[in-house]
Design goal:
The protein has 697 residues and is α/β, with parallel strands linked by helices. It is built from 24 helices and 22 strands. The strands form 4 sheets. A 7-stranded mixed sheet has the order 6-7-4-3-2-5-8. It has a 7-stranded parallel sheet with strand order 12-13-11-14-15-10-16, with helices on both faces.
């Protein structure tokens, strides 16, 4: 049934057809409901009026009251600007317009009182405000003092004189119109427990605040609601899966004990042992496991995955491991094969490069159960790949795979869905993990193996190029190997490839006595593999590459990572690239090369890399700088559909919202109790937005 919130915005007084069309296109606002949820992102204090003598050019903005003394058109045709002299009775300043010149020339009244608002700038000893907000003031009414919400706008809207103030006028009309239709969406007991304002009050306080305290109350209430419903959806999916999807029971540890006693070449870290215990708990529970294991590059996730595979094999099942690239799949296969051979287990590799004969053997071996472990790329997903009894799927670098691809793996066992172990070397801040993967159980390997030397990271400008090359020569003379990485981004691909090839030629010229490899994503897989192997065998000493090596080749002898144009990489990508070195016993180095001109955010990224090697800390800074959208790297963006809540700053609210959602769903999974009626009703209204894929993993 249509509600008042479905009313098209052209019917709101002050909007009309042309403006509605503009709002549709520019901001995706079509209905009263959309307008109500177009939230301000900050507020301006319009309670204070400045004197011109109090202005400084460090002020972000100032509000003044005064008279227009004169108006003058300056400059020739096509380049004219409008300059008005504005006085508060004691001092004068200028108001300047470069756009809308003829409009303001027409409407400005000399001698009239105006309220002016904008950013003051000092030029030639005179203050001016460019493109000020300006409003005629009639002295028979009190001076307006209020807090102005600031909304996201576009240039097209501004050109049609739609400003934040325009939105405020619309909200003054809209809110009284819809207030009796605004239903409470949170249970009474939660409102009381956390002293939250009602939904109706929250909308008034957000869009028409009378004080900073009202703003605060509105934000707190609406952020809690957003995060609470986000968690209700995720936790209910998780509970449904745990209750509805049984899993194979793997509780034997014979193979595991043999491996520990006879073949494990090093001691596991405390973190690895903890994570293995958590996974073992899932595998013997009788419920299908969906667990995310996150840990830094080099924290030992692969050996944890192998140990879990042994539990599945001990239980009479098969295991498979899927990686996003052939290089990474090949590396996992090589690392695991020596352990599998020692235990007399059959392990095979399936990639796009596998021959027809190899494929036929693999398909046969999987169906008969002769193959215990399959390592592969997307090739594993093909319908022809069928198992006798697939018990455990390990997905490496999970952000490279969409949910649909994981669903295909899930269906490789029709009797009992396989257990899912998802691994990532891109640590995700806990807040983001709770919202992106709230339906997954999460384990963290937050400890590196002993004996690893920290990687020394430095930031160098282009002027230090010769010094950097000198340092590279010293390392090469010690017999070490070096990566030099260039950005390759689709939008500027041609230019980036040119830079890569230029860089390759420069390095060959600067290091004539050393062999240089080049690898980039445009090469054929077999050519890429050939170059990677040459580097791995030590036939080439320098590898010039794009980010294809971000996940991939493991060369313990490579001790230097030079990242060119480091300012063009995100923090998590820089951290991943750095993790390619520091794999041997020698001291390793990462050199970040950039231009001089850097934004504040970029400077912060470089400083963070130099200061810290902790992936969890780095990912937290990344979240603060970039927001969740860029970080998630998944095709599950619907889960982080947050308009007000900020995952970098609202961790405390998220924790409380998650705890409350969990308690409610454990007590009343169907939300049928009278006190949960508001939740059930709100969920039925938003159900069409829910994710059909989320139950998969």
């Amino acid at each position: 049934m249509a509600s008042i919130f479905d009313t098209k915005i052209e019917y709101l007084k002050g909007i009309g057809g042309p403006r509605a069309e503009l709002l549709n296109k520019e901001l995706g606002i079509f209905t009263y409901g959309d307008l109500l949820e177009h939230y301000p992102f900050r507020y301006e204090d319009r309670t204070r009026f400045y004197k011109i003598s109090e202005l400084t050019d460090t002020l972000p903005a100032a509000q003044l009251l005064g008279k227009i003394k004169s108006v003058e058109l300056v400059g020739g045709k096509g380049k004219s600007r409008l300059v008005a002299t504005f006085s508060d009775g004691v001092a004068s300043m200028e108001l300047v317009w470069f756009q809308g010149v003829s409009y303001f020339h027409k409407i400005l009244q000399i001698g009239a009182n105006y309220i002016v608002y904008g950013k003051p700038s000092l030029f030639g000893g005179i203050f001016s405000i460019q493109h000020p907000e300006i409003e005629l003031y009639k002295s028979d009414r009190p001076l307006p003092k209020y807090f102005q919400p600031i909304y996201h706008l576009t240039d097209k809207l501004r050109k049609k004189f739609i400003e934040s103030k325009t939105f405020t006028q619309w909200f003054r009309t809209l809110l009284p119109l819809v207030q009796e239709h605004i239903h409470e969406t949170l249970p009474e007991f939660l409102l009381k427990k956390y002293k939250l304002v009602s939904k109706k009050e929250a909308y008034y306080y957000l869009h028409l605040p009378r004080s900073p305290l009202e703003q605060l109350h509105a934000n707190r209430r609406l952020k809690f609601e957003e995060l609470f419903y986000n968690q209700i959806k995720l936790i209910s999916l998780s509970l449904v899966r745990k209750n509805e999807y049984p899993g194979q029971v793997f509780n034997k540890t014979t193979l595991l004990t043999k491996f520990y006693q006879d073949h494990l070449p090093f001691d596991l870290t405390g973190a690895q042992k903890r994570v293995i215990r958590e996974i073992f708990g899932d595998l013997k529970s009788g419920r299908q496991m969906n667990r995310l294991v996150q840990g830094d590059v080099g924290s030992g996730k692969t050996i944890v995955a192998f140990i879990c595979m042994l539990m599945a094999i001990d239980g009479g099942a098969q295991a498979c491991m899927m990686a996003p690239t052939e290089i990474l799949a090949q590396q996992h296969f090589s690392n695991l094969k020596k352990f599998a051979d020692a235990l007399e287990l059959e392990i095979r590799l399936l990639t796009g490069s596998s021959t027809k004969k190899e494929r036929e053997e693999i398909h046969q071996g999987l169906i008969t159960g002769q193959i215990h472990i399959l390592v592969g790329t997307h090739a594993v997903l093909e319908d022809v790949v069928q198992f006798q009894n697939l018990g455990l799927c390990v997905i490496d670098e999970q952000h490279r795979f969409g949910v649909a691809q994981r669903a295909k793996l899930w269906e490789k066992n029709k009797k009992l869905y396989p257990h899912m172990l998802v691994m990532t070397a891109t640590p995700i801040p806990r807040t983001l993990a709770m919202t992106l993967y709230g339906d997954l159980d999460i384990s963290e390997i937050d400890e590196l193996p002993p004996g690893r030397k920290p990687i020394k990271t430095v930031h160098r400008f282009e002027s230090s190029r010769l010094a950097v090359w000198g340092f590279m020569k010293e390392e090469l003379a010690k017999g070490r190997q070096i990566y030099v990485v260039f950005p390759l981004i689709e939008e500027s691909e041609k230019l980036d490839l040119k830079n890569l090839f230029d860089g390759y030629e420069n390095i060959r010229a600067a290091f004539p006595e050393f062999a240089v490899s080049i690898v980039h994503g445009k090469m054929k897989p077999k050519d890429k593999e050939y170059e990677m192997q040459r580097f791995k065998k030590g036939e080439t000493q320098i590898m010039v590459a794009t980010t294809v090596i971000e996940v991939g080749v493991d060369v313990p002898n490579a001790s230097v990572m030079v990242i060119e144009s480091a300012h063009r990489f995100g923090l998590s990508q820089l951290h991943q690239l750095r993790g390619r070195v520091g794999r041997g016993a020698e001291q390793s180095y990462c050199i970040l090369m950039t231009d001089y001109k850097l934004s504040a955010d970029t400077r912060k990224r470089m400083e963070t890399m130099v200061e810290s090697e902790n992936g969890f800390y780095i990912s937290k800074v990344d979240l603060e700088l970039r927001g969740p959208g860029d970080l998630s790297g998944t095709q599950q963006s619907g889960l982080v559909d947050l308009k007000l809540a900020n995952l970098a700053k609202d961790e405390e609210i998220l924790k409380i919202a998650r705890e409350e959602a969990f308690t409610i769903l454990q007590m009343d999974p169907s939300l049928s109790m009278p006190e949960h009626k508001a939740i059930q009703m709100h969920l039925s209204r938003i159900r069409n937005k829910s994710l059909s894929w989320s139950k998969i993993s």
